[in-house]
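Blinded run. Sample ID left blank on purpose so nobody reads anything into the name before looking at the predicted structure. Input follows.
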Amino acid sequence: MARYVGTVQSNRPADEVFEDLADFTSVAQWDPGVASCEHTGGRKGEVGCRFHVVQDTTGPDIGIDYAITEIEHPRRVVLRGTNAWLVSIDVIVVEPTATGCEVTYDATIKLKGPLALADPLMSLGLKRIGAKAKKGLTDHVNA
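Blinded prediction complete.
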């Protein structure tokens, strides 16, 4: 299992940042590893809302179907992403601060089947990918 946790500061109000990030289509705007993300069903901002993410890779497109599994407006949203190769649990927490808010993004990826043997490599890759996404998230929540 691979895990990346990143925390960034924002000068924007917590409620505004939460609504932006809970609409997971915004991931395509700030994560350079994501080519696109579209809303595929359910009411935005509610449990069961679904999204299809296409990873930006040098090979064939890799799609991951996400759904909101938990949401506590306006502070926490949990998304579960799956495809044939992996399960991803992404937790976004937004906490107000005196100058805006703090955003923590916690991603855990578990490879399925025989691919689970590659979890140590996934951990290294996720750290690299996570660092790039953290920079994009910082820019996005401060725009």
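Unblinding after everyone has recorded impressions. Helices lie at 14-22, 27-30, 119-141.
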